[in-house]
Amino acid sequence: MSMVLMSACVASGSAPMPLAASGPVAISQDGLGYIVDLQPSLTGAEMTVSAETGALAMDQGLAAKRVAEAFCVGRGAKIDRRALGRFDAGSWVFNGGCA
Predict the structure, then answer these.
(1) Range of the domain at 85
(2) For a Cys staple, 33 with which of 52, 54, 79, 94, CB 3.0–4.6 Å?
(3) Which of 49, 35, 40, 36 is nearest to 96 (CA)?
């Protein structure tokens, strides 16, 4: 009976992102090291791209998006087309993950 009550509390919808698909991952591209952190969010996923050493600059959005694309390709996917980037304190943050 308690299992029935527990399952009734779970909302239907898309399944949460598996933990193995999220978390910080080191990526090297064009001789530079980056950290990509993919985390679930209320609207789907959020991917943060940071430099291993120092901060990224506001004009490095395209480079950060290419790193995010490489991250997704490494998981057999492509970057979510809706992944719009924003600069935030030395990192580039993309709303959306891999699709």
Answers:
(1) 17-95
(2) 52
(3) 40
